[in-house]
Specification:
Shape: globular
Largest sheet: none
Strand content: under 5%
């Protein structure tokens, strides 16, 4: 009985996971490149709307930090935030977008 229940739950999880990915492709279609980098690297902790989730809100981050300071936080981490593996053009787009928020 337990094996059947675990198998059913696993099937439901896989099915729901597959459904969730279809929306992400169209949701990022019309985003600013910096916002797309943000959603792919930062939104899981700071939320799509910058309101914060596990990490602090970033709603007014552009008024608190310069683009260079934001880049340093992203690449080196700050507090409990680990360094993120965002470099080159992606880092430039991300920090430019965040500095405008």
């Amino acid at each position: 009985m337990k094996k059947w229940l675990v198998t059913m739950l696993l099937g439901v999880v896989i099915a729901l996971g597959a459904c969730g990915n279809a929306d992400n492709d169209t949701a990022t279609e019309n985003l600013d490149p910096g916002e797309e980098v943000y959603r792919n690297n930062c939104a899981s902790c700071h939320a799509n709307d910058l309101s914060g989730r596990g990490g602090p809100p970033l709603v007014d981050v552009g008024s608190k930090y310069s683009q260079d300071e934001i880049a340093k936080i992203v690449t080196e981490g700050k507090g409990s935030m680990p360094p993120m593996n965002v470099e080159g053009q992606n880092l430039e787009e991300l920090t430019n977008w965040l500095s405008e928020q």
